[in-house]
Protein backbone atom coordinates (compact mmCIF):
# COMPACT_ATOMS: atom_id res chain seq x y z
CA UNK A 1 0.00 0.00 0.00
CA UNK A 2 1.19 3.54 -0.68
CA UNK A 3 2.65 5.48 2.22
CA UNK A 4 2.63 9.19 2.98
CA UNK A 5 5.24 11.57 1.62
CA UNK A 6 6.21 12.33 5.22
CA UNK A 7 7.14 8.69 5.79
CA UNK A 8 9.06 8.65 2.53
CA UNK A 9 11.06 11.72 3.50
CA UNK A 10 11.82 10.20 6.91
CA UNK A 11 13.04 7.04 5.21
CA UNK A 12 15.48 8.82 2.92
CA UNK A 13 16.75 11.15 5.63
CA UNK A 14 17.33 8.20 7.96
CA UNK A 15 19.37 6.55 5.21
CA UNK A 16 21.63 9.61 5.22
CA UNK A 17 20.76 10.50 1.64
CA UNK A 18 19.52 13.71 0.08
CA UNK A 19 15.89 13.24 -0.95
CA UNK A 20 16.58 14.82 -4.34
CA UNK A 21 19.41 12.40 -5.05
CA UNK A 22 17.15 9.88 -6.78
CA UNK A 23 14.38 12.27 -7.74
CA UNK A 24 12.11 11.14 -4.90
CA UNK A 25 8.59 12.45 -4.54
CA UNK A 26 6.17 12.93 -7.41
CA UNK A 27 7.25 11.39 -10.70
CA UNK A 28 9.04 13.93 -12.88
CA UNK A 29 8.40 12.04 -16.12
CA UNK A 30 4.62 12.53 -16.08
CA UNK A 31 2.23 15.38 -16.66
CA UNK A 32 -0.46 15.85 -13.98
CA UNK A 33 -2.96 14.20 -16.32
CA UNK A 34 -0.69 11.20 -16.89
CA UNK A 35 -0.01 10.91 -13.17
CA UNK A 36 -3.75 10.75 -12.51
CA UNK A 37 -4.09 7.99 -15.12
CA UNK A 38 -1.20 6.02 -13.65
CA UNK A 39 -2.59 6.21 -10.13
CA UNK A 40 -5.97 5.02 -11.36
CA UNK A 41 -4.69 2.07 -13.38
CA UNK A 42 -2.28 0.85 -10.68
CA UNK A 43 -4.77 1.05 -7.82
CA UNK A 44 -5.48 -2.36 -6.24
CA UNK A 45 -8.56 -3.99 -7.67
CA UNK A 46 -11.69 -4.53 -5.61
CA UNK A 47 -13.50 -6.64 -8.22
CA UNK A 48 -12.50 -10.30 -8.50
CA UNK A 49 -15.46 -11.41 -10.56
CA UNK A 50 -13.62 -10.77 -13.83
CA UNK A 51 -10.11 -9.98 -15.04
CA UNK A 52 -8.80 -6.43 -14.94
CA UNK A 53 -8.19 -4.53 -18.14
CA UNK A 54 -4.84 -5.36 -19.74
CA UNK A 55 -4.23 -8.24 -17.29
CA UNK A 56 -3.55 -10.61 -20.18
CA UNK A 57 -0.40 -8.63 -21.03
CA UNK A 58 1.88 -8.54 -17.96
CA UNK A 59 4.58 -6.60 -19.84
CA UNK A 60 2.29 -4.27 -21.76
CA UNK A 61 3.20 -3.95 -25.42
CA UNK A 62 6.48 -5.79 -24.71
CA UNK A 63 4.59 -9.00 -23.80
CA UNK A 64 5.47 -12.02 -25.95
CA UNK A 65 2.52 -13.89 -27.44
CA UNK A 66 4.02 -16.97 -29.07
CA UNK A 67 2.94 -20.47 -28.09
CA UNK A 68 4.44 -21.54 -24.78
CA UNK A 69 7.43 -23.89 -25.01
CA UNK A 70 10.86 -24.30 -23.43
CA UNK A 71 12.16 -21.22 -25.26
CA UNK A 72 9.44 -18.87 -23.97
CA UNK A 73 11.82 -16.97 -21.66
CA UNK A 74 14.38 -16.44 -24.43
CA UNK A 75 12.25 -14.29 -26.74
CA UNK A 76 12.80 -10.55 -27.20
CA UNK A 77 10.30 -7.94 -26.08
CA UNK A 78 7.54 -8.00 -28.67
CA UNK A 79 7.75 -4.30 -29.52
CA UNK A 80 11.47 -4.02 -30.35
CA UNK A 81 12.36 -2.45 -33.67
CA UNK A 82 14.18 -4.47 -36.35
CA UNK A 83 17.47 -2.81 -35.39
CA UNK A 84 16.86 -3.52 -31.71
CA UNK A 85 16.09 -7.17 -32.45
CA UNK A 86 19.42 -7.40 -34.26
CA UNK A 87 21.17 -5.95 -31.21
CA UNK A 88 19.27 -8.38 -29.00
CA UNK A 89 20.49 -11.29 -31.13
CA UNK A 90 24.09 -10.10 -30.90
CA UNK A 91 23.74 -9.92 -27.12
CA UNK A 92 22.32 -13.43 -27.11
CA UNK A 93 25.43 -14.60 -28.91
CA UNK A 94 27.66 -13.32 -26.13
CA UNK A 95 25.25 -14.56 -23.45
CA UNK A 96 25.48 -18.10 -24.81
CA UNK A 97 29.21 -17.91 -25.59
CA UNK A 98 31.57 -20.38 -23.89
CA UNK A 99 34.80 -18.78 -22.65
CA UNK A 100 38.13 -20.61 -22.53
CA UNK A 101 41.26 -20.29 -20.41
CA UNK A 102 44.24 -18.22 -21.51
CA UNK A 103 46.43 -18.44 -23.46
CA UNK A 104 44.36 -19.66 -26.38
CA UNK A 105 44.30 -19.42 -30.14
CA UNK A 106 40.77 -18.03 -29.81
CA UNK A 107 41.96 -14.77 -28.31
CA UNK A 108 38.54 -13.16 -28.46
CA UNK A 109 37.20 -15.87 -26.15
CA UNK A 110 40.01 -16.46 -23.67
CA UNK A 111 40.43 -15.15 -20.14
CA UNK A 112 38.13 -17.57 -18.31
CA UNK A 113 38.81 -17.71 -14.57
CA UNK A 114 41.34 -18.51 -13.25
CA UNK A 115 38.60 -19.48 -10.75
CA UNK A 116 35.02 -19.65 -11.97
CA UNK A 117 31.60 -21.22 -11.54
CA UNK A 118 30.67 -21.54 -15.19
CA UNK A 119 32.04 -21.04 -18.72
CA UNK A 120 29.10 -19.04 -19.97
CA UNK A 121 26.11 -16.97 -18.81
CA UNK A 122 23.61 -19.39 -20.35
CA UNK A 123 25.12 -22.31 -18.42
CA UNK A 124 23.87 -20.75 -15.18
CA UNK A 125 20.73 -19.14 -16.57
CA UNK A 126 19.50 -22.24 -18.38
CA UNK A 127 17.00 -21.15 -21.04
CA UNK A 128 17.00 -17.80 -19.19
CA UNK A 129 15.05 -19.50 -16.43
CA UNK A 130 15.44 -20.43 -12.79
CA UNK A 131 18.44 -22.32 -11.40
CA UNK A 132 18.32 -25.22 -8.97
CA UNK A 133 20.30 -26.85 -6.16
CA UNK A 134 22.06 -30.18 -6.79
CA UNK A 135 19.49 -32.86 -7.53
CA UNK A 136 21.57 -35.59 -5.87
CA UNK A 137 23.95 -35.67 -2.85
CA UNK A 138 27.54 -34.79 -3.76
CA UNK A 139 26.50 -33.40 -7.13
CA UNK A 140 27.45 -29.88 -8.20
CA UNK A 141 25.14 -27.39 -9.87
CA UNK A 142 26.30 -24.58 -12.14
CA UNK A 143 23.08 -22.69 -11.51
CA UNK A 144 23.61 -22.39 -7.75
CA UNK A 145 26.53 -21.10 -5.71
CA UNK A 146 27.52 -19.84 -2.26
CA UNK A 147 28.09 -16.19 -1.41
CA UNK A 148 30.81 -15.69 1.23
CA UNK A 149 31.66 -12.91 3.64
CA UNK A 150 32.73 -12.23 7.21
CA UNK A 151 31.31 -9.77 9.75
CA UNK A 152 32.66 -6.24 9.72
CA UNK A 153 34.82 -5.93 12.83
CA UNK A 154 37.13 -2.94 12.37
CA UNK A 155 36.06 0.69 12.37
CA UNK A 156 37.21 1.00 8.75
CA UNK A 157 35.15 -1.98 7.64
CA UNK A 158 32.04 -0.75 9.44
CA UNK A 159 32.53 2.71 7.94
CA UNK A 160 32.92 1.29 4.43
CA UNK A 161 29.59 -0.53 4.73
CA UNK A 162 27.80 2.39 6.36
CA UNK A 163 29.02 4.74 3.61
CA UNK A 164 28.05 2.26 0.87
CA UNK A 165 31.65 1.88 -0.29
CA UNK A 166 31.18 -1.89 -0.12
CA UNK A 167 28.27 -4.17 0.68
CA UNK A 168 30.19 -7.05 2.34
CA UNK A 169 33.60 -7.85 3.80
CA UNK A 170 35.24 -10.61 1.78
CA UNK A 171 36.51 -13.81 3.38
CA UNK A 172 40.28 -13.28 3.45
CA UNK A 173 41.19 -16.34 1.36
CA UNK A 174 38.09 -17.28 -0.61
CA UNK A 175 36.69 -13.84 -1.40
CA UNK A 176 32.98 -13.21 -1.82
CA UNK A 177 31.92 -16.31 -3.75
CA UNK A 178 32.83 -19.98 -3.66
CA UNK A 179 34.12 -21.01 -7.07
CA UNK A 180 34.15 -24.74 -7.60
CA UNK A 181 35.94 -24.76 -10.96
CA UNK A 182 39.38 -23.63 -12.11
CA UNK A 183 41.50 -23.47 -15.25
CA UNK A 184 43.99 -26.32 -15.93
CA UNK A 185 46.81 -26.37 -13.41
CA UNK A 186 44.77 -24.76 -10.64
CA UNK A 187 42.48 -26.20 -7.96
CA UNK A 188 38.91 -25.11 -7.45
CA UNK A 189 38.08 -23.57 -4.10
CA UNK A 190 35.88 -26.40 -2.82
CA UNK A 191 32.45 -27.91 -3.17
CA UNK A 192 29.14 -26.80 -1.73
CA UNK A 193 27.36 -29.47 0.27
CA UNK A 194 23.70 -29.38 1.27
CA UNK A 195 21.75 -31.72 3.52
CA UNK A 196 18.03 -31.58 4.29
CA UNK A 197 15.93 -32.12 7.40
CA UNK A 198 12.20 -32.83 7.19
CA UNK A 199 9.89 -30.25 8.80
CA UNK A 200 6.17 -31.17 8.90
CA UNK A 201 3.50 -28.46 8.65
CA UNK A 202 -0.18 -29.11 9.38
CA UNK A 203 -2.95 -27.14 7.68
CA UNK A 204 -6.18 -26.19 9.41
CA UNK A 205 -7.94 -29.11 7.71
CA UNK A 206 -5.31 -31.53 9.15
CA UNK A 207 -3.51 -31.95 5.80
CA UNK A 208 0.22 -32.41 6.47
CA UNK A 209 2.95 -31.08 4.19
CA UNK A 210 6.61 -31.88 4.78
CA UNK A 211 9.10 -29.09 4.10
CA UNK A 212 12.82 -29.69 3.70
CA UNK A 213 15.13 -27.50 5.77
CA UNK A 214 18.63 -27.18 4.23
CA UNK A 215 22.01 -26.94 5.94
CA UNK A 216 25.04 -25.76 3.94
CA UNK A 217 28.75 -26.46 4.26
CA UNK A 218 31.86 -26.50 2.09
CA UNK A 219 33.95 -29.63 1.48
CA UNK A 220 37.35 -30.23 -0.15
CA UNK A 221 38.70 -26.74 0.53
CA UNK A 222 41.52 -26.05 -1.90
CA UNK A 223 43.31 -23.20 -0.12
CA UNK A 224 43.19 -23.94 3.56
CA UNK A 225 40.47 -23.36 6.16
CA UNK A 226 37.91 -20.61 5.90
CA UNK A 227 37.53 -18.00 8.60
CA UNK A 228 35.64 -19.48 11.56
CA UNK A 229 33.08 -16.66 11.36
CA UNK A 230 32.47 -17.02 7.62
CA UNK A 231 28.87 -16.50 6.55
CA UNK A 232 27.47 -18.66 3.75
CA UNK A 233 24.50 -17.67 1.62
CA UNK A 234 23.21 -20.04 -1.09
CA UNK A 235 21.78 -18.50 -4.25
CA UNK A 236 20.12 -20.07 -7.27
CA UNK A 237 20.15 -18.09 -10.49
CA UNK A 238 16.86 -16.20 -10.96
CA UNK A 239 14.83 -16.11 -14.14
CA UNK A 240 15.78 -13.33 -16.57
CA UNK A 241 12.48 -12.11 -18.03
CA UNK A 242 11.25 -8.53 -17.71
CA UNK A 243 14.44 -7.13 -16.17
CA UNK A 244 14.47 -4.00 -18.31
CA UNK A 245 10.90 -3.24 -17.29
CA UNK A 246 11.83 -3.57 -13.61
CA UNK A 247 14.75 -1.24 -14.24
CA UNK A 248 12.28 1.25 -15.75
CA UNK A 249 10.02 1.38 -12.66
CA UNK A 250 10.54 4.90 -11.29
CA UNK A 251 12.37 5.17 -7.98
CA UNK A 252 9.53 7.31 -6.65
CA UNK A 253 6.99 4.53 -7.15
CA UNK A 254 9.20 1.95 -5.43
CA UNK A 255 9.86 4.20 -2.44
CA UNK A 256 6.14 4.98 -2.17
CA UNK A 257 5.67 1.41 -0.88
CA UNK A 258 8.50 1.59 1.65
CA UNK A 259 7.59 1.76 5.34
CA UNK A 260 10.67 0.70 7.33
CA UNK A 261 9.22 1.87 10.63
CA UNK A 262 5.83 0.21 9.94
CA UNK A 263 4.06 3.51 10.61
CA UNK A 264 0.72 2.11 9.46
CA UNK A 265 1.00 -0.85 11.85
CA UNK A 266 0.18 -3.53 9.27
CA UNK A 267 3.22 -5.63 10.23
CA UNK A 268 4.83 -5.13 6.82
CA UNK A 269 7.79 -2.79 6.54
CA UNK A 270 9.69 -2.93 3.30
CA UNK A 271 12.86 -0.93 2.91
CA UNK A 272 15.19 -0.06 0.04
CA UNK A 273 18.75 -1.31 -0.24
CA UNK A 274 20.91 1.70 -1.04
CA UNK A 275 24.05 0.64 -2.89
CA UNK A 276 27.05 2.15 -4.62
CA UNK A 277 26.56 2.54 -8.36
CA UNK A 278 29.94 2.22 -10.14
CA UNK A 279 28.45 3.72 -13.30
CA UNK A 280 27.41 7.02 -11.74
CA UNK A 281 29.76 6.92 -8.75
CA UNK A 282 26.77 7.73 -6.52
CA UNK A 283 24.53 5.88 -4.09
CA UNK A 284 21.47 4.47 -5.87
CA UNK A 285 18.51 2.23 -5.20
CA UNK A 286 19.36 -1.46 -5.48
CA UNK A 287 16.75 -3.48 -7.33
CA UNK A 288 18.42 -6.62 -8.77
CA UNK A 289 19.70 -9.75 -7.05
CA UNK A 290 18.21 -11.72 -4.17
CA UNK A 291 18.99 -8.88 -1.76
CA UNK A 292 18.64 -6.01 -4.24
CA UNK A 293 22.42 -5.53 -4.25
CA UNK A 294 22.73 -4.20 -7.82
CA UNK A 295 21.33 -0.85 -8.97
CA UNK A 296 21.15 -1.73 -12.66
CA UNK A 297 21.29 -4.62 -15.10
CA UNK A 298 24.65 -3.41 -16.40
CA UNK A 299 26.17 -3.54 -12.91
CA UNK A 300 24.61 -6.95 -12.23
CA UNK A 301 26.00 -8.28 -15.53
CA UNK A 302 29.50 -6.90 -14.91
CA UNK A 303 29.70 -8.47 -11.46
CA UNK A 304 28.44 -11.78 -12.86
CA UNK A 305 31.15 -11.71 -15.54
CA UNK A 306 33.77 -11.15 -12.82
CA UNK A 307 32.41 -13.45 -10.10
CA UNK A 308 30.89 -16.30 -12.08
CA UNK A 309 33.20 -16.43 -15.11
CA UNK A 310 36.35 -14.61 -13.99
CA UNK A 311 36.00 -12.36 -17.04
CA UNK A 312 36.83 -8.68 -16.73
CA UNK A 313 34.72 -5.93 -18.29
CA UNK A 314 35.20 -2.16 -18.59
CA UNK A 315 33.01 -1.72 -15.50
CA UNK A 316 34.66 -4.40 -13.32
CA UNK A 317 38.13 -4.70 -14.80
CA UNK A 318 39.41 -7.58 -12.65
CA UNK A 319 41.20 -10.07 -14.90
CA UNK A 320 41.70 -12.45 -11.98
CA UNK A 321 38.04 -12.36 -10.96
CA UNK A 322 37.57 -13.18 -7.29
CA UNK A 323 41.14 -14.40 -6.67
CA UNK A 324 42.52 -13.05 -3.39
CA UNK A 325 46.01 -12.14 -2.17
CA UNK A 326 46.08 -15.49 -0.33
CA UNK A 327 45.74 -17.33 -3.66
CA UNK A 328 49.07 -16.43 -5.23
CA UNK A 329 49.01 -19.34 -7.67
CA UNK A 330 45.70 -18.05 -8.97
CA UNK A 331 47.19 -14.57 -9.40
CA UNK A 332 50.11 -16.01 -11.36
CA UNK A 333 47.93 -17.66 -14.02
CA UNK A 334 47.67 -16.15 -17.54
CA UNK A 335 44.78 -13.81 -18.29
CA UNK A 336 43.05 -12.83 -21.52
CA UNK A 337 45.38 -11.70 -24.30
CA UNK A 338 44.43 -8.04 -24.65
CA UNK A 339 46.14 -4.69 -24.77
CA UNK A 340 47.35 -3.31 -21.41
CA UNK A 341 44.44 -2.01 -19.38
CA UNK A 342 41.84 -3.47 -21.73
CA UNK A 343 39.34 -5.89 -20.28
CA UNK A 344 38.85 -9.50 -21.36
CA UNK A 345 35.33 -8.65 -22.50
CA UNK A 346 35.86 -5.17 -23.94
CA UNK A 347 33.15 -2.92 -25.34
CA UNK A 348 30.67 -3.54 -26.83
CA UNK A 349 30.27 -6.98 -25.18
CA UNK A 350 28.94 -5.70 -21.86
CA UNK A 351 26.62 -3.28 -23.65
CA UNK A 352 25.18 -6.06 -25.81
CA UNK A 353 24.73 -8.51 -22.92
CA UNK A 354 23.05 -5.73 -20.94
CA UNK A 355 20.68 -4.97 -23.82
CA UNK A 356 19.86 -8.68 -24.19
CA UNK A 357 19.16 -8.96 -20.47
CA UNK A 358 16.99 -5.83 -20.51
CA UNK A 359 14.78 -7.13 -23.28
CA UNK A 360 13.93 -10.76 -22.55
CA UNK A 361 10.17 -10.70 -22.95
CA UNK A 362 7.51 -11.74 -20.45
CA UNK A 363 4.98 -14.30 -21.82
CA UNK A 364 1.29 -13.43 -21.76
CA UNK A 365 -0.92 -14.89 -19.05
CA UNK A 366 -2.69 -18.22 -19.38
CA UNK A 367 -6.13 -18.92 -17.94
CA UNK A 368 -6.29 -15.47 -16.40
CA UNK A 369 -10.08 -15.39 -16.82
CA UNK A 370 -10.73 -18.87 -15.40
CA UNK A 371 -13.15 -18.68 -12.41
CA UNK A 372 -10.76 -20.77 -10.30
CA UNK A 373 -7.88 -18.43 -11.09
CA UNK A 374 -10.00 -15.39 -10.25
CA UNK A 375 -10.97 -16.99 -6.94
CA UNK A 376 -7.29 -17.64 -6.25
CA UNK A 377 -6.48 -14.03 -7.09
CA UNK A 378 -9.02 -12.90 -4.50
CA UNK A 379 -7.51 -15.28 -1.92
CA UNK A 380 -4.05 -13.88 -2.78
CA UNK A 381 -5.22 -10.33 -2.07
CA UNK A 382 -7.26 -11.18 1.02
CA UNK A 383 -4.36 -13.10 2.58
CA UNK A 384 -2.20 -9.99 2.26
CA UNK A 385 0.21 -11.36 -0.36
CA UNK A 386 -0.28 -8.31 -2.61
CA UNK A 387 1.13 -6.02 0.10
CA UNK A 388 4.68 -7.08 -0.84
CA UNK A 389 3.99 -8.72 -4.20
CA UNK A 390 2.63 -5.44 -5.55
CA UNK A 391 0.79 -6.30 -8.76
CA UNK A 392 1.21 -3.28 -11.02
CA UNK A 393 3.46 -0.40 -12.01
CA UNK A 394 3.72 1.93 -14.99
CA UNK A 395 7.26 2.32 -16.29
CA UNK A 396 8.97 5.66 -16.81
CA UNK A 397 8.53 7.70 -19.96
CA UNK A 398 12.30 8.24 -19.74
CA UNK A 399 13.28 4.55 -19.71
CA UNK A 400 16.60 3.82 -21.40
CA UNK A 401 15.00 1.53 -24.02
CA UNK A 402 12.15 3.25 -25.87
CA UNK A 403 10.20 -0.03 -26.22
CA UNK A 404 9.95 -0.25 -22.42
CA UNK A 405 8.65 3.27 -21.82
CA UNK A 406 5.25 3.99 -20.25
CA UNK A 407 4.12 0.36 -20.09
CA UNK A 408 1.61 -1.01 -17.58
CA UNK A 409 3.38 -4.03 -16.12
CA UNK A 410 2.35 -6.74 -13.65
CA UNK A 411 5.54 -8.06 -11.95
CA UNK A 412 3.97 -8.78 -8.53
CA UNK A 413 6.92 -7.32 -6.61
CA UNK A 414 7.66 -4.11 -4.73
CA UNK A 415 11.44 -4.54 -5.30
CA UNK A 416 11.98 -3.81 -1.59
CA UNK A 417 13.61 -5.74 1.23
CA UNK A 418 11.48 -7.60 3.77
CA UNK A 419 12.29 -9.58 6.91
CA UNK A 420 11.23 -13.12 5.99
CA UNK A 421 11.75 -14.65 9.42
CA UNK A 422 14.04 -17.24 10.95
CA UNK A 423 13.20 -20.01 8.51
CA UNK A 424 14.55 -18.22 5.43
CA UNK A 425 17.30 -16.23 7.16
CA UNK A 426 20.82 -16.66 5.79
CA UNK A 427 22.25 -14.51 8.65
CA UNK A 428 24.52 -12.80 6.11
CA UNK A 429 24.09 -9.01 5.78
CA UNK A 430 24.58 -7.42 2.37
CA UNK A 431 24.67 -3.65 2.30
CA UNK A 432 21.56 -2.33 4.03
CA UNK A 433 19.96 -5.80 3.90
CA UNK A 434 20.35 -7.72 7.13
CA UNK A 435 20.57 -11.47 7.49
CA UNK A 436 16.80 -11.89 7.58
CA UNK A 437 15.86 -9.68 4.65
CA UNK A 438 15.27 -10.55 1.01
CA UNK A 439 14.01 -8.56 -1.95
CA UNK A 440 10.47 -9.50 -2.98
CA UNK A 441 11.00 -11.66 -6.08
CA UNK A 442 8.77 -10.89 -9.09
CA UNK A 443 6.17 -13.57 -9.69
CA UNK A 444 5.55 -13.08 -13.41
CA UNK A 445 6.42 -16.25 -15.31
CA UNK A 446 6.51 -18.36 -12.14
CA UNK A 447 3.87 -20.73 -13.51
CA UNK A 448 6.14 -21.63 -16.44
CA UNK A 449 9.06 -22.76 -14.28
CA UNK A 450 8.61 -26.46 -14.99
CA UNK A 451 8.18 -25.85 -18.72
CA UNK A 452 11.30 -23.67 -18.98
CA UNK A 453 13.59 -25.11 -16.30
CA UNK A 454 12.38 -28.69 -15.95
CA UNK A 455 11.71 -28.44 -12.21
CA UNK A 456 9.48 -26.70 -9.66
CA UNK A 457 12.09 -25.64 -7.11
CA UNK A 458 11.56 -22.20 -5.61
CA UNK A 459 12.96 -19.59 -3.19
CA UNK A 460 16.53 -18.28 -3.07
CA UNK A 461 18.04 -21.74 -2.57
CA UNK A 462 15.48 -23.97 -4.28
CA UNK A 463 14.43 -25.63 -1.02
CA UNK A 464 10.72 -25.43 -1.86
CA UNK A 465 9.71 -28.27 -4.18
CA UNK A 466 6.50 -26.59 -5.26
CA UNK A 467 4.57 -23.37 -4.79
CA UNK A 468 2.74 -24.62 -1.70
CA UNK A 469 6.03 -25.25 0.08
CA UNK A 470 7.29 -21.84 -1.04
CA UNK A 471 4.32 -20.12 0.62
CA UNK A 472 4.77 -22.16 3.80
CA UNK A 473 8.38 -21.01 4.20
CA UNK A 474 7.25 -17.39 4.46
CA UNK A 475 7.72 -15.87 7.91
CA UNK A 476 8.56 -12.54 9.50
CA UNK A 477 6.62 -9.80 7.74
CA UNK A 478 4.87 -12.47 5.65
CA UNK A 479 3.81 -14.60 8.65
CA UNK A 480 0.23 -13.32 8.64
CA UNK A 481 -0.19 -14.08 4.95
CA UNK A 482 1.36 -17.51 5.40
CA UNK A 483 -0.92 -18.30 8.34
CA UNK A 484 -3.94 -17.17 6.35
CA UNK A 485 -2.92 -19.69 3.68
CA UNK A 486 -2.76 -22.51 6.24
CA UNK A 487 -6.28 -21.68 7.41
CA UNK A 488 -7.76 -21.90 3.93
CA UNK A 489 -9.74 -24.89 2.75
CA UNK A 490 -8.12 -27.15 0.19
CA UNK A 491 -10.35 -25.64 -2.49
CA UNK A 492 -9.15 -22.14 -1.59
CA UNK A 493 -5.50 -23.21 -1.46
CA UNK A 494 -5.78 -24.93 -4.82
CA UNK A 495 -7.32 -21.78 -6.29
CA UNK A 496 -4.51 -19.59 -4.96
CA UNK A 497 -1.91 -21.94 -6.45
CA UNK A 498 -3.83 -21.95 -9.75
CA UNK A 499 -3.62 -18.15 -9.75
CA UNK A 500 0.16 -18.25 -9.22
CA UNK A 501 0.51 -20.81 -12.00
CA UNK A 502 -1.36 -18.49 -14.35
CA UNK A 503 1.22 -15.72 -13.89
What is the count of β-strands? 12
Percentage of residues in strands: 5-15%
Q: What percent of residues adopt helix (DSSP H or I)?
A: 25-40%
Low-confidence stretches: 1-24
Could you spell the SSE succession in H and E letters? HHHEHEHEEEEHHEEHHHHEEEEHHHH
Class derived from helix and strand content: alpha+beta
Bulk shape: globular
Task: Describe the strand arrangement of the main beta sheet, using strand numbers.
Answer: 1-3
Average pLDDT works out at: 93
Helical run tally: 15
Separation, N- and C-terminal Cα atoms = 21 Å
Can you describe this structure?
By secondary structure, the chain is of the alpha+beta class. It has 2 domains: 5-82 and 247-274 and 359-502, no CATH class; 101-238 and 278-349, no CATH class. It has 15 helices and 12 strands. The chain has helices spanning 5-14, 32-42, 82-95, 121-124, 155-162, 243-247, 251-255, 297-309, 328-331, 349-358, 371-382, 449-453, 467-472, 479-487, 490-502; strands at 115-116, 144-149, 181-182, 191-202, 208-219, 231-236, 273-277, 282-286, 393-394, 408-409, 417-419, 437-439. A two-stranded antiparallel ribbon has the order 1-3. A two-stranded antiparallel sheet has the order 2-6. Strands 4-5 form a two-stranded antiparallel sheet. A hairpin with a 5-residue loop joins β4 (191-202) and β5 (208-219). The longest helix has 14 residues, at 82-95. It is globular. The model is unreliable at 1-24 (pLDDT under 50).
Amino acid sequence: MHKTLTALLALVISAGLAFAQDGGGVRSDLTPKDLERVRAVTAPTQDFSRPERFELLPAGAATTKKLVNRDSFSLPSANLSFEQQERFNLGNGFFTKLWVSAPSSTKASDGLGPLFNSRGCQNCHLKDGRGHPPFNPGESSESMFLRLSVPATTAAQKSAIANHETDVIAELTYGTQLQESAVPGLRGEGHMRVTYEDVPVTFGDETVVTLRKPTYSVADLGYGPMAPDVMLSPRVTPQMIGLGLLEAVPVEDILANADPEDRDGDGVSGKPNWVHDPVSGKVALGRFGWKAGAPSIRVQAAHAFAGDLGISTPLVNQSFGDCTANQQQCLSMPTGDNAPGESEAPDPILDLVTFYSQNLGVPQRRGFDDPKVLAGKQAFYEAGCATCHVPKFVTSRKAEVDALRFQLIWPYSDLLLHDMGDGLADLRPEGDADGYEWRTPPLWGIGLTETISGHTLFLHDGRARNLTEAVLWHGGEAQKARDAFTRMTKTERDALIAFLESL
